[in-house]
Design goal:
Layout (H helix, E strand, L loop, with lengths): L7 H16 L2 H11 L17 H4 L7 H9 L1 H15 L6 E2 L9 H8 L7 E2 L1 H24 L5 H18 L7 H23 L7 H22 L4 H20 L1 H32 L3 H14 L3 H10 L10 E3 L7 E5 L6 E3 L1
Antiparallel strand pairs: 1-2, 3-4, 4-5
Length: about 350
């Protein structure tokens, strides 16, 4: 996807420069510019307010305050004030209000009514550089995606959602508070949303229907020949194999990635069935009652009940034979005596 700047070296330079700027102490940065331009370090018209974020309050809006100074005090004072704002204040970390968004402009409504914090309406020189760089790229992305109906892909996903989320996280970080970076993140995410919506509402018709149908039919015919005439499978197994082959072949005709994903999924499902069948076979062998085990069981029971052998013989002679079962009392150590009366069915006991 073409971009105005898609050079990783340029992005690395801008990012590393931004983080290096953040490492410089604010007092040293301010002192450097004041000492470099002593004539512009102080300006009574610009510094008419005091306190935290006094630049947002008054005197530093180049769209509102500088024209007022030009009208009321003349061009010389306006030039001095503009120099003070741009040369000594703009490079510092506190920065200056976004033009037109100071408290005397639209910023008063944004902070008091909308609730946007004041730091998000101020920018410094590094915020402006990084923000303009990011906003330009984000603007080109959203224009390109909307104009060319770019489909969602891994590359587009990284360039929209991932990059936009990173820009939002950095722009809203209390140490950075870059409104332009937030705007760029919103642009990139909006571009990703448009691409996703277009991909969902215009599915897969960029591939010819006959390519998909032809690939599916070819795969199905090959699978039928192999299953029916070479492997000698039954009709149900042949139908299942043909269905799988048609699905995989059709997906490969649409996208190689789709076809590979389908093969991996079917392979995983088949391996799971194989493991389950082995486990079921082991359990069936373990729980199977063989003739030898049955007679072993009868022998064990006969040791406990000497009448069992006689009952079995009588039952073989007369299938309607029902033994007369006496009442038993069973004592479990410290448990109270419990009386049981055996019913007619040997598998049922009724508590008295």
């Amino acid at each position: 996807m073409p971009e105005i700047v898609n050079d990783p070296i340029s992005k690395a330079i801008v990012s590393s420069g931004n983080f290096a700027y953040l490492k410089i102490p604010a007092a040293e940065l301010r002192g450097f510019f004041d000492s470099s331009f002593p004539a512009l370090a102080k300006n009574h018209l610009a510094d008419c307010a005091s306190g935290y974020l006094h630049r947002f309050t008054a005197g530093h809006d180049i769209v509102i305050d500088i024209p007022k100074t030009l009208i009321n005090h003349g061009p010389l004072e306006a030039m001095k004030q503009l120099g003070h704002v741009l040369i000594t204040d703009f490079p510092t970390k506190q920065g200056i209000p976004i033009p037109g968004l100071s408290e005397s402009g639209l910023g008063g409504w944004l902070t008091n009514v909308v609730g946007i914090p004041k730091p998000y309406l101020c920018i410094n020189v590094m915020d402006a550089a990084v923000g303009i760089f990011a906003c330009t790229e984000g603007t080109l992305d959203i224009i390109n995606i909307c104009a060319n109906n770019v489909r969602m892909s891994p590359e587009v996903f990284l360039d929209t959602f991932v990059e936009g989320a990173a820009e939002l996280a950095l722009g809203t970080n209390p140490m950075i508070t870059n409104p332009l970076l937030v705007a760029s993140g919103i642009e990139n995410i909006a571009a990703g949303v448009y691409s996703s919506c277009y991909t969902i509402t215009h599915p897969i018709w960029y591939t010819s229907f006959w390519d998909v149908a032809g690939g599916g039919l070819a795969g199905g015919m090959i699978s039928l020949l192999i299953s029916k005439f070479i492997l000698k499978k039954d009709n149900a197994t042949c139908l299942a194999n043909v269905t799988k082959s048609v699905s995989i072949s059709s997906l490969f005709a649409v996208s190689t990635g789709f076809g590979i994903a389908c093969i991996i999924g079917m392979a995983a499902s088949g391996y799971g069935r194989f493991l389950a069948s082995k486990d079921n076979a082991k359990r069936a062998i373990f729980y199977r009652i063989t003739k030898e085990r049955y007679f072993d069981f009868l022998e064990c029971v006969s040791h406990c009940s000497p009448d069992l052998a006689k009952w079995i013989i009588e039952f073989e002679k007369d299938k309607s034979f029902i033994p007369e079962l006496p009442e038993y009392q069973i004592e479990f150590n410290d448990m109270p005596l419990i009386e049981y009366q055996f019913g007619e069915d040997l598998q049922m006991m009724h508590r008295i």
